[in-house]
Amino acid sequence: MKTWPWRVAVVASAALAIAAGDGWIASHWLFVFKPLTTLLIIAFAWPRGADLPGRRRWIRIGLVLSLAGDVALLWPVQGFLPGLLAFLLAHLAYIAAFTRGVRFAARPAAFAAYALVAGAILWALWPGIPEALRIPVLAYVACLATMAAQAAAVGRVAALGGALFVCSDALLATHKFAAPLPLSALWILATYWTAQGLIAASMRRADEVTDSVRT
What we know:
Layout: H1 4-21, H2 30-45, H3 53-72, H4 80-98, H5 108-125, H6 131-151, H7 156-177, H8 184-201, H9 206-214
């Protein structure tokens, strides 16, 4: 199956969502192109991963939960907690995916590194986080760091996806709890969808599975 049409469609939709988010086009287009971009990544991921059906199932669940989070965060105030919960569950799904065929905490150094990163992010942003959100944010950051650390044991593509997810959420948290970022949609959404695309791409295509069996 050719994947380049999906990649082109994802990039085009993401570019329009970013343009709407940063005010280059009418903001209401964000309600169209933000969920559409994640839907296109789901479509790209759906036929992949036949060699590891357990991982495929959990990555699919994670992507669908991410879509729910994307929709919730279209309303940044009212939708923040529902969106946070949806993405927390998405990271739990990705952790489940990345433990299919790979032992949990197979790379302790990655867990130690991400624990330091998570601690630094929380230390920097903690004063600006409202008290009512501190426990949910703490739980979310712990799940995010665990997901990224476990992704590092799966392979380079998944590892880069996990790292970019941490980067995207660190930018989002900085924008929300510390100081507004210029071109925030560009940096946050570009790293976010690249991360999701890499997590999807970490699963092998059907033709790749067939070729490996033949050889």
